[in-house]
Design goal:
The complex is a heterodimer of chains A (457) and B (102). Helix content of chain A is 58%, strand content 7%. Chain A has 457 residues and is of the alpha/beta class. In chain A, strands 3-2-1-4-5-6 form a 6-stranded parallel beta sheet. In chain A, helix 14 links the parallel strand 2 and strand 3. Chain B is built from 4 helices and no strands. By secondary structure, chain B is mainly α. Chain B has a domain of 46 residues. In chain B, helix 2 packs antiparallel against helix 4. In chain B, 71% of the residues lie in helices and 0% in strands. Classes of the chains: A alpha/beta (457), B mainly alpha (102). The interface between A and B is large, with 111 and 82 residues.
């Protein structure tokens, strides 16, 4: 088989890199996003076909079989996964990518004597291993196979520090010494660091962790580009690393906290631990029929969904309710907080699944000025993202977090399971506001009741 | 390729990444994550290279494992992103409003 000239290989890789950039660029609007993703996948196809013709490869049948197996595993999962389970899936795919980068790096150790390349190798191994095990723990948490509460044990910070130092030591030894003991130790320590990194993170902070680990895998893949002298891997990995980093920072800003505060907050007994005490102050509770009347005769309604909606799988019912209200001439939009759900943008995906048109999904900055002209705000399964303590109580763990200012609306209706505080464990003053009514119960059941009451109006 | 050229590429890629991502609407942050996820599945290229250049059975086994993982990452990532983006639809044409009541 004749091979491509190196120039052609480089040009085809450049084409693939451009496709990846266009794929990310396409996401600036829902209109062109799908086409962008298609362009990205074509770029990946070009790159994979190119590699077979660019260097002399052995074992080609075996490699093709492995690709077939990988696709056969991933495609059915990707097709069937429920939208509420998207965070687990993305976390899982991210982990296997990190694992693959670490394995590729290990294999390059045998025939590279250049100091810088060896440093890139140990870096890729460490970051890839952290990403792999960290993602695995994240998936376990999201699937609730282990508790979503922060897992802490005495001495965790010490264990973590020792593991990190030992990993760095093993990395240095791998660079300078040829023994196979060091790379194995490095991988094992990397896996441990990943586990210790994610265990203390609470469920509400998981979106940030997924995003951060995504950045890690990107960086590992970028470093593997240096290892293999492959510019495409370098560019693609760096792009993902940069995007993951910026998204992580955006998420942290949307929670009003620093990234380090989220990752290490629980070490210091920080905010995610929270309290679960109930308040016995009086609130106004309401009935489904009353809520239906308020919504049915309003002009402008804003629905604020939170993770409780996803847990109850109520996205289809809420979309039906919105349609029923619009049929009555009520203007309905959804106000979506950036960190609502279990991964960035999670609520938007759930509502899109339920056929809510994307024009009706409003971001924080778009919707906040609208609350003044809103007759009724319907808050479903959300709490902390509408808690005014974020603005008014400097000592509160969520102080500084931008919130949806539902207090500006004429009336507020909360669909809540109980009076338990939200994840941050802080009481929400707005629940006791005279404008506020509460309808207790499972989000989906309450929504169905309100829906049938609206239809009966 | 020499170190300075590689560094140039990295720095430019970082800026392109920051520029492109800061324009992504927050509505699409989930597809952004899964799409970026699919893109780092390009480590498949690296896995193919190492798998094609070893004949030691143990090393080959590790490399083949890397190919399987990387393929799952890349193919699964693109498929699930497409599935999500397909759901993001705009409002139906206004001409149909009269028929909504069935």
């Amino acid at each position: 088989m004749s091979l491509l000239a190196p120039e052609w290989t480089a040009l085809l890789y450049l084409l693939a890199a451009v496709c990846f950039i266009l794929a990310l660029k396409g996401l600036s609007s829902p209109k062109h996003a799908r086409r962008g993703n298609l362009i990205g996948s074509l770029g990946a196809l070009v790159a994979v076909v190119t590699v077979f013709f660019s260097i002399k490869l052995e074992n080609i049948p075996l490699i093709l079989a492995a690709i077939a197996v990988g696709s056969a595993i991933a495609v059915p999962i990707a097709r069937k996964v429920k939208m509420t389970q998207m965070p687990q899936l993305v976390g899982g795919f991210n982990g296997v990518g990190g694992g693959a980068a670490a394995l590729v790096a290990v294999l390059e150790l045998g025939h590279n004597d250049d100091l810088w390349v060896r440093i890139a190798i140990v870096f890729t191994m460490l970051v890839g291993a952290v990403s792999f095990s960290g993602s695995a723990v994240t998936v376990l948490k999201l699937q609730e196979l282990i508790t979503t509460r922060p897992i802490l044990f005495p001495g965790l910070p010490v264990v973590m520090s020792v593991a990190v130092l030992a990993a760095v030591g093993a990395a240095v030894m791998t660079v300078i010494d040829g023994s196979w003991v060091w790379p194995v130790a490095l991988l094992v320590l990397g896996l441990l660091v990943g586990i210790f990194l994610v265990l203390p993170v609470g469920g509400a902070d998981v979106p940030i962790v997924i995003s951060l680990l995504n950045a890690f895998t990107g960086i590992a893949v970028g470093a593997s580009g240096i290892v293999l002298g492959n510019v495409l891997l370098l560019v693609a990995g760096t792009l993902v690393g940069a995007s993951g980093t910026i998204l992580t920072m955006a998420m942290a800003a949307a929670m009003g906290r620093g990234v380090t505060g989220i990752m290490f907050g629980a070490f210091k007994g920080g905010s995610t631990a929270g309290s679960t005490t109930q308040s016995d102050r009086p609130v106004r509770s309401s009935s489904a029929e009353d809520v239906a009347v308020q919504l049915g005769y309003a002009q402008n309604v804003v629905i604020v969904p939170g993770y409780g909606l996803a847990v109850a799988q109520g996205q289809h019912t809420i979309a039906e309710l919105a349609t029923a209200l619009e049929a009555r001439g009520v203007h309905v939009v959804f106000g979506i907080h950036p960190v609502a759900g279990r991964m960035p943008g999670h609520m938007n995906v759930l509502l899109a699944e339920a056929n809510v048109p994307y024009e009706s999904l409003k971001e924080l900055d778009e919707i906040n000025p609208e609350f003044k002209n809103t007759d009724v705000v319907l808050v479903v399964g959300a709490n902390d993202v509408v808690n005014p303590a974020a603005k008014s109580t400097p000592g509160s763990p969520i102080y500084g977090m931008p919130i949806l200012e539902v207090g500006d609306a004429n009336q507020i209706v909360f669909l809540k399971r109980s009076m338990r505080p939200g994840f941050a464990g802080i009481e929400n003053e707005i629940l006791f506001d005279p404008k506020t009514e509460l309808l207790f119960g499972d989000a989906k059941e309450s929504l169905s009741k309100v829906l049938s009451a609206v239809k009966a109006l | 390729m020499d170190a300075v050229t590689l560094l140039t590429v990295v720095v430019l890629a970082v800026f392109v990444g920051f520029e492109v991502i800061s324009k992504v609407t927050s509505k699409l942050h989930t597809p952004l994550m899964s799409g970026a996820n699919a893109i780092h599945g390009i480590i498949l290229v690296g896995a193919i290279i190492v798998a094609g250049q070893t004949n030691d059975p143990w090393l080959l086994a590790v490399a083949i494992a890397a190919v399987v993982l990387a393929t799952a990452n890349m193919v699964g990532g693109f498929v699930v992103t497409d599935r999500m983006l397909e759901m993001f639809r705009g409002k139906k044409p206004a001409a149909k409003t009269g028929e909504d009541a069935k």
